Amino acid sequence: MIILDKWKYTIYVSEKKDGTAREIKDFIYTKQVHGNALHILDKKIEFIDSENDGIISEIPKIKVWVLLADCNGILLMGKRWYGAIHAWRKGLQNGMIEKALDRLKNYDEDIAALHAYIGPSIRACCYEVGDEFLGYFNKKYFSRRDWKLYFNMIAMIKDILRDADIPLKNIEIHTDCTACSWRFFSYRKSNKNQRIVVAVEKK
């Protein structure tokens, strides 16, 4: 387990050696459906049996997490509120990140003071997509190699965060591509059922 202490928060990123995410305990999460629904966890700790792709909380000393296998786990950390967001192609199309940021803003978080952490995910080196993706997103996020089309989700996520006024110095991105690295599960590398954890806990 990778554990980072940053910005008055603790960040957790599991690796293959930790086992599949569903075997890891002591985390609060939701059933992810590749949408843009958020669960708000405020005054009490509860088991969440609902379909959401993100959790926002103000409760200290609990771990909120998302399950991943090539998707992006995005952690947003403010003065009081924080959250874990699952963002894939559909989530990006449906404004998952923007919705989470709007909710934090509604809770009086200063967006320009937020910190963001993006965990390991499939990167532009390996995320081959079909030409229909060109109709989903700005063409600047695509490249072609050997007649194949590749999508750069990280570049798009960085732009979304920066357009929301989060400074670049407040954005940290894990360096590994899940499809390249041996350390993490990857759906595209036939790990169809295994998942990793990206989580955050307020101290």
Report on this structure.
Helices cover 13% and strands 29% of the residues. It has 203 residues and is of the alpha+beta class. A hairpin with a 4-residue loop joins β6 and β7. The longest helix has 11 residues.
Summarize the structure in short.
This protein is of the alpha+beta class and 203 residues long. The chain has 3 helices and 13 strands.
Number of helices: 3
Residue share in β-strands: 25-35%
- Terminal residue distance: 18 Å
Overall, the morphology is globular
* Helical content (DSSP H or I, runs of 4+): 10-25%
- Write the CATH architecture name: 4-Layer Sandwich
Give short descriptive properties of this protein:
4-stranded antiparallel β-sheet, 203 residues, 6-stranded mixed β-sheet, CNF1/YfiH-like putative cysteine hydrolases, 29% strand, alpha+beta, globular
